[in-house]
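Posted in: Structural Biology > Protein-Ligand Complexes

Title: Requesting predicted complex, zinc ion in pocket

I'd be grateful if someone could produce the 3D structure tokens for the following input. Sequence and ligand are given below.
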Amino acid sequence: MDRTVIVQLKPTPEQATILKRTLAEHTACFNAVAKIGFETGEGNGVELHKQTYYDLRRRYPDLPAQLVIAARVKATEAVVSALTWAKKHEASYHKRVVKWQKQGKDILPFKPVKAPQTHSCPIRYDARSYWVNWNHMTASLATIGGRLEIAMSASRQAQQYIGHRVCSADLCYRQGRFWLHVVVSIPVPVVEPDPTVIGVDLGETRPAVTSSLHFLGQRRWKAQERRIFRLRRKLQSKGTKSAKRHLRKLSGKLFRQRRDHDHVLSKRLVQHTPAGGTIVLENLREIRSRGERRGKAARRRFHTWSFAQLAGFIAYKAEQRGIAVFRIDPRTTSQRCSRCGHVARNNRRSQSLFLCRKCSYCLNADLNAAKNIREKYLTSLASVGTPSLVGSQSSCLSSPPSGEGQASSFSLEVT
Ligand SMILES: [Zn+2]
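-- Reply #1 --
Done. Output follows.
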């Protein structure tokens, strides 16, 4: 499995100048290719290479050929996604115009999608253009001044991945510092499969409740996030210059706070699951895309928001302990009685209380949902036999084999 280690580069002043110029020339190459690709509608890497490579080599003779190619590869990706987006954007504009006309509203002008351009494009190094010496803590990078050997330092958090085989690396420049995001490949742990299956209900009041009777996360998170959310809404309606400045700060704060909460929650969840076991989550993305149960979805907005992030954190933390993660369609999991199976909307008497109309089973509503989620997974598993799901890393965060819920891939960026 791959993990990303972020190390800070400590270049000498001369090295820093060379790095900056290398980044600038690489960015110029990226922008040039992206502009040509977007304007001509060309999303084929080979074609773009033919059209731009020799010209760029002439314009930036010091930039190593590998980096010119790296810039073109990145630009091609950006062009393809920009072209796709432009197509979608245009189609949706026509739909919106029809809607505006129906509602008698003013028709806003069409804002075309622009070619992808950037101030600073990180350089993607590969095995041929860089290497890392973990013993001496140095990195050797291809630059406009030839190969440079640069000292580096890793945070305590990153230390655990040091020494493993390195794959690619991204060179970034942020706020006066150079960072190298090194992707390392670490061995997948060999873990005996464990039959334990844990259903997890994600909510707002109780961030996570497991079918094994654990209430994880803090209740105060909700209040914290809500406070920032409200303040943000207030500032947004103001729209003054200082309000905007304040907003930028605040959105960063909300982002960091939520990331912190998601890290804590995912860690606890994985700690409460035996190695080799299985975690079953609800597929909260489904709810949003289906547009049903709007009331509930709205109540959960603070969590659904970061569901992709939380699910990603759970997946990579689970992987290290050989735990498989699955998602199921959450429909009726909050209305069904986990003892007798009776489904009724009014089984749930309040936010926290579940009382079955049929068998009078009474328990915490989130706990009941967690038990149903576990149950639903086991049922879907039984209906297709018992394939060897546990411990297979590629199956992490896939849907159950019955095909309930859409399997979607999360990018598991670990920072
Ligand atoms: Zn019941």
